[in-house]
Amino acid sequence: MRLVSDMKREKLLYLMLLPGLLFFVLFKYLPMLGVVIAFQDYQPFAGILHSPWVGLKHFHRFFMDPDFWMLFKNTLLLAVYNLLFFFPLPIILALMLNEVRKHFFKRFVQTIIYIPHFISWVVVAGLTYTMLTTEGGIVNEALASLGADKVNFLLSTDWFRTLITSQAIWKETGWGTIIFLAALAGVDQQLYEAARMDGASRWQQLWSVTFPAIRTTIVLLLILRLGSFLDTGFEQIFLMLNSGNRDVGEVFDTYVYTTGLQNAQFSYSTAVGVFKSVVSLILVISANGLAKRFGEEGVY
Amino acid sequence: METRKKRNVRRKGMAAGVATVLAVSLLTACGANSNDGGEASGSSSSSSGGKAAQPVKFSAMVPFFAAQPPATDDSNPAFKALEDKTGVKLDVTFVPGSAYDDKVNVTLASGNLPQAIVVTNNKNSSVINAIRSGAFWEVGPYIKDFPNLQKYWNDQIATNISVDGKIYGIYRERPVARKGFLFRQDWLDNLGLQQPKTVDDIYNIAKAFTTDDPDKNGKNDTFGLALSSDGLASDTMIDLVTALGSFNKWGIQDGKATPDFMTPEYMEALKLLKKMYDEKLINQDFGAIKGTKVRDFINQGKAGMVTGSIDDANSQFTSLYKLIPDAKIGFVAGLEGPKGVKLPANSGYYGEFMFPKSSVKSEADLKNILSYFDKVLDPEVEKLFDFGVEGVHSKVENGNPVITNQELFANQVADLGQLRIAPSDLTWPTENDVMKKVKQMYKEQAPNAVPNVTEPFLSPTQAERGTDLDTIINDASIKFIMGSIDEAGFAKATEEWRKQGGDKMIDEFTQEYNKAQNK
């Protein structure tokens, strides 16, 4: 009832909201109806309306597949590596940059470190190959000149996760600092003044003033990160994947590609995608709930 | 003083807050985008078929294999000449060859199809399902209406592309005896060695290329055989396995369809490659290399041998000649083994042109398009594909055409060849020696080519899971060569292959084979 009277009073505002709503309905919600093909044997030429319904057949096949646990483990491990080794780095880097007093130097470093973000994964994979190949790659040549054995980094199951995580760190850390630097810029300078008056050292200022100020941003980003927890990044992994490392490298995203596009099993790969989305949704909701319990503001 | 400072601080804070929110919303937007990549929407729209006006007009999708596709406007005289000579206006979409099958699958799923589409994965479930649900014109009955097409038609290849006994496309014929070893002839000459004739020769030459300094620069900087992860299955292994006397991928053993990797010859070939890998005669990173990249090793003067199509000798090593003007590429197709000289046969075609009913609306439209494929078989048009436009790409010498601008030809004409259906069987005295020898070898070796016996058959399991199953064996082969699994490990992979659908595939092929035998 309140809503209706509100709408009457603020007619114009609601009218202005309409295009935005329309956008989401048309381009986000309607296409989502496509997930019904996960419960069909979808044939492109029969279309959604005429493809036979098969219930949970594709989910059943997926969970019974011997590859399921391998995929699950690989995806999970890569995601955990990413969270442990990559996620904290932009925060640390932003805090360090924040302590830099020379303005020019700070800007300079900031620009340099986020340039890799704009380099495409194809190029990054090419660079990695050129550096690490056993046939004249600079790393292996260096190892050889030191008298050590060459290491087949690109084909090794032991190095795969390290490679993927390092690539992500190299490419995205600088870009990740932007949000934290923005949050840091918003910290009231008077708080530092007051802290100094009370005799706080630089470390104490960092711990008691700076850190609490950006804690909300960290939690917010963590929740959002969990939302895409299982998105290991298709391009990057696909480009680094080969026969040698497939046992540790095949993840949900690459699996959806091989079954969906190469073998044209649209329904099955959609079922895999739906499973991934459901897991992500659960992660976001529980992370948000947890954040609220600890007195932080959640995403919603 | 104090108040201004305060205001400043507040404004700064607000700006930062806005920036944070903006950045965060940007992030979520990205996240949302990447999420809906997996779902394919099933709306089907169709482009209107060209109403048969004076010049026939149709759209086509074909692969290309150079770095850039050829131009399809007035800037390309060869394309213009093609349109003039066939009387057709073409709207061509060129798609990179390495991603072509994926693009075909996506295009099929989108329902928005060109009027003529080259389908190279014609045994894939997406294509078979589309055919069975009536998405494509059956062209078999029309062939006899077109004299050139009828002359071109080969019943063996037609059987290979047929689905449920019917023909749904025009195959693009390719030589059957085409696979072989390409090597640095000048290195062989430097070392006083003969061209390889047997599997043992391959090993010995690779060894000499690695250890005997074939490029005479006093440095130990060369190796024998350049290998890639996908070329292993598509070329190197079947070259060796057929020479050793076994099947080309599939054969019949004890009345049952049997894949080559269940025969002892396959293990023999694997062990040979493993020995070569251990002795560093093969690039140690071959598992991470795909596609045309393997030829870079030859083009950089690092490796001495590679497997592929023998006609590659004519077109794929131009950068080697730039780097080392004295370099020469030799080639052989077929190696001597216990059953005589053997080599793997190609299927006889590379993809087929298919015509979707959703975009080719009427029988009249179909006939108009088919008349283009009839015309590309005219000697005049064939010559255009081979030599480009006279005065631009080639000139006439004593009545015979000679290519004058190789680079322009490569940029403008070479990949237009994807729009033709027959490889040229016209020979010109002015053709270079390499191509003459290649064409001669096609003919000589054709009787020695071992066909894949399952080529004409359909297996539902292969159509649906073929790619996954192939990956199991290819991965195991690569791991065996690299030494990360042993013979028992390879047997385990074979077991895995059988469990995941291989046994079903064997049954399906055996049944089809028996059906064909009893006819």
TrEMBL record, chain B:
InterPro entries: Bact_solute-bd_prot1 (IPR050490), SBP (IPR006059). It comes from the Bacteria. It holds the Pfam family SBP_bac_1. Keywords: Cell membrane, Lipoprotein, Membrane, Palmitate, Signal. Residues 1-34 form the signal peptide. PANTHER family: ARABINOSE-BINDING PROTEIN-RELATED, POLYGALACTURONAN_RHAMNOGALACTURONAN-BINDING PROTEIN YTCQ. This is Extracellular solute-binding protein. It comes from Cohnella zeiphila.
